[in-house]
Amino acid sequence: GRHGGVVLAAREEFELGLDLKSDCKSLKEVVLKLFSAGIKPQTMRDATRGGLSAVLNEWAKFSKFDILVFEENIKVADEVMGVCELFGFEPYELANEGTFVMAVDEKQAEDALKILREFDKNAMIIGTVMEAKNECVIIENAYKSRRFLEPPKGELLPRIC
Fold first, then answer.
1. What are the tens digits of pLDDT across the range 58-81?
2. Residue ranges of the PurM-like C-terminal domain (predicted)?
């Protein structure tokens, strides 16, 4: 959500005094390396419009399965959390311009993660597909408490770039 945080702060003409920079970057190299290593994603998508929340909820809806994600594995910059708290946004709904989400077979997960970490040390396995078929995304915090991660509703930040 770094890019979304930058856009939100600019739109509100709010000087935060934070070191918040867009995460915009090319994903070509990392994706090509995954493919050349034989990683076969079930699906993958950039997390731009609607952020992580939109991606996961689309996948749950179209796959007809539930997705469980572990909040402690989702890295959100402190600066982004601050912007979200200030303006009342869900950090998982903000745009990420240099980030993608990928679902791979469990057998390839560690190999994929190793490659991803060559490009981004913060890459993580954030969740799993569950047997339940309610088409929802559930987020679990460090205390094992769960809540639904709803799809983005209402007006998302307008595209300005």
1. 999 999 999 999 999 999 888 888
2. 1-135
Q: Are 124 and 55 in contact (CB under 8 A)?
A: no
Q: Residue 44 is part of which domain span?
A: 2-148
Q: Is residue 83 part of a domain?
A: yes
Total domains in the fold of the chain: 1
R_g of the chain computed on alpha carbons: 16
Say how far residue 40 (Cα) sits from the centre of its chain. Answer: 20
Residue 18 lies in a domain: yes
79 phi and psi angles, rounded to 5 deg:
-65, -40
Residue closest to 136 by CA, chosen among 49, 69, 43, 41: 69
Q: Residue 95's closest CA among 52, 134, 132, 144?
A: 52
Average confidence (pLDDT) over 97-119: 95
Whether residue 158 lies inside any domain: the answer is no
> 3 pLDDT exceeds 70?
no
pTM for the model stands at 0.81
Alpha carbon distance 42, 37 (integer Å): 15
